[in-house]
Each structure stands twice: as C-alpha cells, then as structure tokens.
C-alpha cells in the first residue's frame, strides 16, 4: 500500500504528515460496536467521544455513530449522519493534524445535531484567516450537499474560550 504525505488544509500549517501505512481492515474479522439503549430516555440520544486528529478517524466516527443511531431507533438517520460525520472528522483532522477532535451527537426536539470541535488556532492575520476558512468550507462541499438534500443546516464557527478552536456542526430534522 502506498501512502502519500498529507498537508494540512490550513495555509499557516507547515507540517506535512505521512500516515503510517496499514492494510484496510476487513471489518468482518473485527467485532462491530454494539451499543444497547437502556430504554427510551426522556433526554434522547446523547453521545460524546474524542478521536485522534488523523484522517483515518473518520471510519471510527462513522462506525460509532451508526451503532448509536441504530441502538436508539434512529436508523433512518444513519446514512446522512454517518456521511456528515465522516466529512467533518476528515476535514477537521486535516485542519489540525495530530490534535484530538471532540465529537458530539445529540437527538432532541425531533432533530439530530452533530458537532465536531478541533483545536485549530485562531489566525491573527486577516488574510490567512480568510483563506483558512475558505479552504475549510470548500473541503466540506459533500457535507453541504448531503445536509441540503436532507433539509438540514450546517455551519462553522469559532469555539468559545477558554478552549478556543473551531466548531463545525450539522443539524438534521427528523
């Protein structure tokens, strides 16, 4: 398997990351996550987890989110939610290589909300900040198409202090 170096999407990042090659896992030989709902919660689905800042983490995120949605009786949301999660995780991993990503999935008030937070620093130069935001939004073109097709909304904004970073979110109606 050939692995090519990945450059960060951010124009200010100078680091080039070469992923460690490994064969694509045959998912049939590994146990699949099995999440069991503890009955219908009044609060609904609430799932949070942290992933490493690596583009391969999108596979893990998709798998966990699909299992959680199935366990909570939200199977119709598996396709759009897993596509949205994979796109958000892959792009945020490219924006902040080697830094942890926080993923949150919530279902309340007949809407599914997905949030991915990364530790991307705020740029001081306005030109660099604009270019960085433009690259992030362009990289999320497939996410925009899926969310639009399902009648949802998505966005990217600065995370609140003290942690900072960037939050990307998706809201899909039921």
**What's the shape?**
globular
Strand order of the largest sheet: 3-4-5-7-6
H and E string: EEEHHEEHHEE
User: How helical, in percent, are the residues?
Assistant: 25-40%
Q: Outline the biggest β-sheet.
A: 5 strands, antiparallel
Alpha-carbon Rg, integer: 17 Å
Number of β-strand runs: 7
Helix count equals 4
Distance between the termini: 41 Å
| pLDDT < 50 runs, ≥5 residues | none
Strand content: 15-25%
Structural class call reads: alpha+beta
Integer average pLDDT? 80
Polypeptide structure, described:
The chain has 174 residues and is α+β, with helices and mostly antiparallel strands. It has four helices and seven strands. It has a five-stranded antiparallel β-sheet with strand order 3-4-5-7-6, with helices on one face. The N and C termini lie far apart (41 Å). The model has no long low-confidence stretch (mean pLDDT 80).
Give a concise summary:
By secondary structure, the protein is of the alpha+beta class. It has helices at residues 57-71, 78-95, 126-139, 141-149; strands spanning 6-7, 16-17, 46-51, 101-108, 111-118, 153-158, 166-173. Helices cover 32% and strands 23% of the residues.
How would you summarize the topology of this molecule?
Elements (H helix, E strand, L loop, with lengths): L5 E2 L8 E2 L28 E6 L5 H15 L6 H18 L5 E8 L2 E8 L7 H14 L1 H9 L3 E6 L7 E8 L1
Antiparallel strand pairs: 1-2, 3-4, 4-5, 5-7, 6-7
């Amino acid at each position: 398997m050939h692995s090519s170096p990945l450059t960060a999407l951010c124009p200010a990042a100078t680091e080039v990351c070469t992923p460690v090659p490994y064969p694509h896992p045959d998912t049939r030989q590994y146990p699949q996550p099995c999440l069991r709902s503890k009955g219908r919660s009044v609060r609904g689905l609430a799932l949070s987890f942290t992933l490493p800042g690596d583009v391969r983490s999108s596979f893990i995120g998709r798998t966990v989110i699909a299992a959680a949605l199935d366990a909570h009786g939200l199977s119709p949301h598996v396709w759009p939610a897993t596509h949205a999660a994979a796109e958000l995780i892959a792009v945020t991993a490219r924006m902040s290589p080697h830094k942890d990503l926080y993923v949150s999935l919530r279902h309340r008030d007949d809407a599914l909300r997905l949030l991915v937070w990364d530790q991307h620093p705020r740029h001081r130069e306005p030109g660099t900040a604009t270019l960085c935001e433009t690259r992030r939004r362009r990289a999320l073109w497939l996410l925009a198409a899926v969310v639009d097709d399902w009648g949802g909304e998505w966005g990217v904004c600065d995370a609140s202090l003290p942690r900072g970073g960037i939050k990307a979110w998706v809201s899909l109606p039921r």
